[in-house]
Amino acid sequence: MYFEILISSESAMSIFFSHDLCKNSRAKPTAFRQIRRSSEKSNPYRTISCYRTGIQVSAFYAPIMDVDVFGTLRRNKKNKSTRRAKSRKLLRLATVISRYLNFRMPEEAFLNLCDLLHPYIPKQTMKTTVSLEKRVALTLYKLASNTEFHDVANLFGIGVSTACDVFWEVCKGLCQLKRKFIGMPKSEEDVKTIIKGFQEKSAFPMCAGALDGTHIHILAPSIFHTDYYNRKGWYSVILQGLVDHQYMFQDFDIGWPGKSHKLFQNSKLHAKLENGTCFPPLTKTIQGVDIPVLIVADSAYSLSCNVMKPFPEGVARGPQLQLNECLSRARIHVEHAFGRLKDRWHCLMKRNDSQTTNIKFVVAACIVLHNFL
């Protein structure tokens, strides 16, 4: 079977099927060449072809490659509206063919993100500068696809070293937005809203957050690499996250080796829970017992006044099983949050080849973007 995918600014995608080309295997190359030549004559866009077992995929990327984000247009310092128009053109194309660009956000969100990052990204002094929109787009593409810097640099029309510098500048700029988008609920009304959300979704009372950890795949560090070798058989660092009923991160901790089991005990969240400064002093009386605000976690965590874990399997009976079910429905919010985070930003799903000391910037940037969207 032969199919051809046509992409242009006017039509998002048109798929044409032709079964006749598969009847004669010897005639395939000739037929493919004829169709490709006819396509090139009728369409001025460049054709990129890929043959796999009798399948040719042709994509016309000229409308995209002409946009500022890919480096073919120079930045116009005097006319900001022109640059904004170029970025809008890019995002319109990215919305239509998001699977090819993988910016993971619509146009308005992209423009708002550029405005938020503007104070935190240093200005370049070189003669030919890289626009802010292009730097943000490069970073989003890198985070979403986990592509090598060499390929990203070629795609955006800049040098490899420039692509690396741009990526880390934007990631650190996103980290500066952490306090704006990530934080524990401060007022009693905010806490009550979260408790009500968990109550409606899971029937678990007084729950203000779901806590869990996940592994981020990394290269083996040059020193103490055995500490990063986890029980699953690969090297990782641990990401611990606390999310609310809307899958938004309230707190996170990143950087501990994959073999470590004391992340929660050494985290700032644990210290706040022990000091009683994490949540407002709210209680609810259930069967004569005052229940404080608490968070739910799995069996790997220690039971405390503010951390609730399920009863052990094989021991729970009757009401204990019902409590485990309600707790599981509440705790699954953090698992879904991790799933959404990794599915959107593949740099956390696949092996991340960044240095161990820089992983925290990548993870923090992805979590900020997760809450931003």
TrEMBL record:
Keywords: Hydrolase, Metal-binding, Nuclease, Nucleus. Residues 211-371 form the DDE Tnp4 domain. GO terms for cellular component: nucleus. Its cofactor is a divalent metal cation. It comes from the Eukaryota. InterPro entries: HARBI1-like, HARBI1_dom. The keyword Ribosomal protein does not apply. It is found in: Nucleus. GO terms for molecular function: hydrolase activity; metal ion binding; nuclease activity. The keyword Metal-binding applies. Belongs to the HARBI1 family. PANTHER family: GH03217P-RELATED (PTHR22930:SF85), PTHR22930. This is DDE Tnp4 domain-containing protein. It comes from Cyprinus carpio (Common carp). The lineage of its organism: Eukaryota, Metazoa, Chordata, Craniata, Vertebrata.
